[in-house]
Amino acid sequence: MPKPILIIVLMFLFVTHAVHSQTTNTPQKKSNFKAKITRVEIAGRDMPFQENYHVDYDNNILEFEFMGVPAQNNLSYKYRIIENSFEGAKPSEWFYTAKTSVKVDSLKPAVYHFELVALDAAKNESQPAIVEFKIEYPWWRSWWFWGSCFVTLFGLFYGRERFLKFWSDEEQRHHRQVTELELRTLQLQMNPHFVFNALNAVQSFILNRDTISANNYLSKFANLIRLFLDSSRSKYITLADEIKLLSLYIEIEMLRFENKFEFHLNVAPDINRFIEIPTMILQPFIENAINHGLRYKETKGNLYMSFFNQGKYLVCRIEDDGVGREKAKQIQSKSRKGYKSQGLKITEERLQTFNLIADADIHFLVEDRLKPPYEPGADIGTTIEIKFPKFG
């Protein structure tokens, strides 16, 4: 390469390096001013300056006045609104203005930052000025409002349920009282029914001038009446007392019918004799077996009463080898016109009422003791089973 050209290239490289070094070593000019917010107005009211504000939902109109410090001419400004939520900060775009005030409105409830930056003529940026403000939720969207609504609604529903339950319980209580009175009335109807038959027997002894039998009968009858009166004071009676009462009643009936039948009692060994059953339930069934079955039998009959357990039930089975229900009806229709026994009907009503009060399931079944075909002249007899849930 010729020397003149080489000298020119070296001089160019030297100048370029010098210019670059000067540019690199020259320090950047830093901004020596800042933006300052001088006044905050909320819903037309001047507020003392502070770093954060709480703004009501109905008053979410804010106006900011600002300036550059130190004061300079030809300053412009840019600002943005940063929304802070659970999802993070959401800054808006930058807005530019040459004015020294900005109005902000129509913001939804949240926490915001108002960020302001001043710009000089060379577009150098100042340090930002930041103000935080929180727009509160309206009262109908606040947690305490919804909490109060929940508590109030819960209280109303709970109170309504309690009120309905109270009146339901009161209605059931009154219904139970009425039903118990009905049960007591039906229970008292049993005593006159039995007394009527017993007095007829006493009258028969007196007419036949059988003083000894009448005296014996009256003695047993008085003892039985006392037991009836004692048991009628309670809805329940122990099985032991019921057996005692029924045995005495059957003895009186055997006297009345001059030993026309024999009585057989069988209590299973596993029976709890202190278990309680409703009062005055079994006597009408025995009375029915005697008066409508055994009394019409031409030969000496038998009355069987047994107690045994069957699952959750205590079962009382009453059997007779009398003439049977159909033949008894035929005989009664000829000899006792207009008479209708009320014992079983009253007992059935008492059982229905008692089951309603005690939520029990006492039921009975009446059927013929013998199943067809029958032998000629056979006494069919009757079997009654009464099932008591085990109350105790």
Automatic annotation (TrEMBL):
Span of the signal peptide: 1-21
Annotated protein name in UniProt: Sensor histidine kinase
GO MF annotations in UniProt: protein histidine kinase activity
Domain Signal transduction histidine kinase internal region, first and last residues per copy: 182-261
InterPro entries associated with the record: Bact_2-comp_sensor_kinase, HATPase_C_sf, Ig-like_fold, Sig_transdc_His_kin_internal
Pfam families registered for this protein in UniProt: His_kinase (PF06580)
EC numbers on record: 2.7.13.3
Organism lineage string: Bacteria, Pseudomonadati, Bacteroidota, Cytophagia, Cytophagales
Source superkingdom: Bacteria
Enzyme class: transferase
TM segment ranges: 143-159
Species for this entry: Emticicia soli
Gene3D superfamilies named among the record's database cross-references: Histidine kinase-like ATPase, C-terminal domain, Immunoglobulins
Assigned keywords, A-Z: Kinase, Membrane, Signal, Transferase, Transmembrane, Transmembrane helix
